[in-house]
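Re: the 455-residue chain
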Amino acid sequence: MAGHLGGWMCRSDPRMNPSPPSCRPLPATRYLPLSPSRPKSSFAEMPSPSAIPSLRTELLVRLAVLTAAAILLAVAGLVLLGDVVSSEHGTLYVGALLTADLVLVVALGAYVVQRLVVRPLTQLLSAAEAMAGGDSARRVGDTSSLEMHRLATSFNRITERRTEEQAQLVRVEKLASVGRLAAGVAHELGNPLTAINSYVHVLRGRLARSMERDIGDVLTVMERECARIDRIIRGLLDYARPRPATAPPIDINDIVRSVVDLLARQGAFEGVQVDLELTRQELHIHGDRHDLEQLFVNLLLNAVDAMARSGRVVVRVERAARITLRQPSVRRSVIDNHPVEHAPSSRAQLWLAGHDSAEIAKIVVADSGPGVPAEIADRIFDPFFTTKQPGKGTGLGLAIVARIVDNCHGTIWVTTAREAGAAFHVLFPIAAAAVGESEAAPASAPRDERARRAG
């Protein structure tokens, strides 16, 4: 098999025992500057609050119009009924006219207050009672005044944040329960599995000369299944293993580059084109090196498996502005140029809202495979959930990825990639030292660079 890695071509013979491949230099890798501009979103923009009149203005204008109309009506009545007014019962007629005018003004004024104040407050109260009763899907609709619009928007945001926080609490409790269960199961199964595997090796050694072929096949199957159970147990242990609360800053570019180099030397990218896009300056985050390497190994191997080892994988590292990440956008597919909608998940939105830093470390692992259906995008990080055929996967790879991301105080979600497959977006807070270096860097310096690699 052969693969390309950076400026090297690596070859190894799959018929031989696994060994480091021999490499020879290729032409130098081309570096292309990334465009700093982002494609503009084509989503319909929400009405700007500045375009909505304020409640005070609405009330003043409408009540002023009613008052002017009442005065004009009274004057017109006096002019038209001038002879009647000057008669013996003129005072009664004038009183009746003014009373009718006042009743009309009060009725219309009550309608205006009902429409602009009472009705929106009633809707808000109804939504609050529904939320208190457990209806987390209830939202307040649009209103016609600026103050009520802001109040409804704030209420909806509070509701969404509360719903997501409850879901996060349930998710954390579920993961903690699974972690405790995983640790117990791994401990209980590990020792007998080791014993079984040892006895299989002893039995194979003793019967190496005299056993029949079918017995050897049975032992081979037993060894393979023991190895599969061992992988599951190791995955459970990795999932349940506690991590330190703090970790030293580490350059995420170096992590991604080393993982890609490692997998390329192992032949994991055979038949796969790998495009690696890194930032020119170092981008530090807080995290354990082993955990971060495992994170990207799992994501890259998952992408390769999804494409059946034939396609394109893009790994992109960038320093992204937090405010732009919160806004939905549309990107053009590199396959057929059709628009691909992109927006962070609700959990990622909550994560972004909880960070005050202007910039975030963003890593995207995208592939040209079949993608992830939207209906399972939130479940794909659950333990033991897998879309692979029975026996092909343990369902722990992406669960371990999500756990590592949480340990590093980051967030992750999956969308449709421009390459038509799945795009896993990972966000991490930038280490304080890296933030200071970014602010001290000259504004004219190029910020990013792209390295293309093919396998």
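The chain has three domains: 49-132, 168-240, 247-452.
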